[in-house]
Amino acid sequence: VTRHQLVVVGDGPAGLALAHHTHQLGVDTVVVGRGAPWAATYGAWADGSLGAYEAALAVTAATVAVGACEHRLQPRYGVFDNEQLRSMLAAGLTIRTGHVAGVQHFTWGSRVLLADGGHLDGAVVVDASGSQPVLAEPSATREPPPMQTAYGLVLDERPQVAGDGVVLMDWRQPQAGAATFLYVVPLPDSTWLVEETSLATNTPPPFGELRSRLAARLGADLTANALHVEHVAIPMRPRIPSLDQPVVGFGAAAGYVHPATGYSVTASLRAASRVAAAVDGAIREPDPRRRARAIWHEVWPAEARRVRALHDFGLRALLDLGPHAGQFFDAFFDQPTERWMPYLRIDATVGEITAAMRAVFRAAPWPVRRRLALRNPSALTRIVR
Ligand SMILES: Cc1cc2nc3c(=O)[nH]c(=O)nc-3n(C[C@H](O)[C@H](O)[C@H](O)COP(=O)(O)OP(=O)(O)OC[C@H]3O[C@@H](n4cnc5c(N)ncnc54)[C@H](O)[C@@H]3O)c2cc1C
């Protein structure tokens, strides 16, 4: 039986990104995944933080956000060409198609069990199987997480709504009801995605309501004309799992989901080389538990854990904004790019996050400040002081 140095479970963006970097470092790596296409549209900022992966952003365009007024945003924003990104990451990798069903731990490492009766042995096993991880234990939560939901249509041309380019969020409300926003982005095959999105909430509006709000914006329900209909439901408030477990998590499986946006792909792409270096360093450690722990601490370094606590606080404030969300984002996008952009990254510094929070709080109108302060006034005072 071949014993690999690293078995990566999951052939999504996170699993392949990590494997790409460990392979480059000479770590004997095998990926196991279902081989399913990447169906989601991954949006990202062309902000220079993605290095070579920026070449896989198929279309980037000038972007606006609209609250009570319009903000022209820099840098440009775009959508990955999933096939191009996947082939960049998968080049040279050993990928086995299979369905992972379980894991067993031994003194030498771990055995990944496949549903077809086969197995793969590794000194280290990384679970990158997405937000419902198959092997890594997510942190236990008592309440269901808030959900970000969206109803989207892929259309063969851009509908006449909110200008002619990318719309990150348009908070002008098309009708009464829960506050939702419009998202418009061009896709790699020259089609357009238009989406009515409800930011994280404990009471997400039903898809039927999102559909009718989108129809109200577009002047008609274009569902019948759509090339594809997208129903998005992303669980938010992703917890940091226990860092003391034998299977290391990565990507959404490790809680790499931004508590405000639901995005995770760029965070995984940026973290992959750092975590790969930790894998490379840890495989020389004889005790498998210590190996796993050393890597976990690079998946979630102390600074990133502190940032997550601040983002969780920010999410709780967002949940309370209700009809004031547009005014909040006016204050947010009124800030210079270098102030608001780090807030959208899970790998920013504590200083960058608190500076963004402080600036937005100071710029926000009183009704928004009151809402932001409502839940946890003492924590907010510490942050904005
Ligand atoms: C409609 C939609 C739109 C989104 N838009 C964005 C966006 O614009 N930007 C962004 O960053 N994020 C977005 N997200 C969130 C994003 O999809 C996920 O956060 C991202 O896919 C996580 O990447 P990952 O590689 O960690 O996990 P996944 O993409 O979930 O990949 C996990 C892989 O593991 C495989 N797998 C799972 N279980 C097993 C098993 N038992 N055995 C073998 N293989 C297995 C799966 O087949 C899958 O390929 C969106 C989500 C949705 C639903």
Structural summary, described in words:
It is globular, with a radius of gyration of 21 Å. The chain has helices at about 15-25, 80-90, 205-220, 265-280, 290-300, 300-320, 325-335, 335-340, 350-365, 365-375, 375-385; strands spanning about 5-10, 30-35, 45, 55-65, 70-80, 95, 100-105, 110-115, 120-125, 145-155, 165-170, 180-185, 190-200, 230-235, 250. A hairpin with a 4-residue loop joins strand 8 and strand 9 (about 120-125). The chain contains 11 helices and 15 strands. With about 375 residues, the chain is an alpha/beta fold. Bound molecules: flavin-adenine dinucleotide. Flavin-adenine dinucleotide binds near residues 11, 33, 43 and 230.
Describe this structure in a few short sentences.
It contains eleven helices and 15 strands. The protein is an alpha/beta fold and 385 residues long. Helix 1 packs parallel to helix 2 (82-90), helix 1 (13-24) packs parallel to helix 4 (265-282) and helix 4 packs antiparallel against helix 5 (288-299).
